[in-house]
Structure formats: structure tokens, C-alpha cells
Amino acid sequence: MLTKFETKSNRVKGLSFHPKRGMIVPKLERERPACATHGNVLYYVKDRYLRTYDFATQRDNPLMSICRAGNAGANQGPKTLA
Hints:
This protein is mainly β. Helices cover 0% and strands 40% of the residues. The radius of gyration is 17 Å and the shape is extended. It has one domain (2-67). It is built from no helices and 6 strands.
């Protein structure tokens, strides 16, 4: 069940699910694109690429392609951060 709470200043969405039914994740990328800054560099996602923008040099560079989970190639195991 997707619940949505709205106020003038922000919008919050919550998910509730049952262990036997699975979970549905809504697409929020259009509302709030994924981005983060570190130092003078902005990391963001655009057109299925992780990109960087350097504020000092004003250069935009693609770092890597982002694929959907169903399009993973053969012999590629799951990726984890450890």
C-alpha cells in the first residue's frame, strides 16, 4: 500500500508490504533525481548514466552506465557494497 502525505513545503511517500506479497517500489526519479556533492563535484544520474559535474572547471563527464536489473549480462553476479 502506497501512502502519500503532502504539505505546502514537502511531499512524503511511504510503503507498506506483507512478506508473502512482495514489495512495489515506485519510480521517484522524476520527482527527485539522485544526486550528491563531495567537495567541488556534483554526482548525479541522467539518461541512465552516473555523471559528475565539476564546479571549478564547469565540466560534465559520464562515469558509468546504469542498467536495469533485468538487463544484466551473462556471468555477472550480484553487486554489493562491502
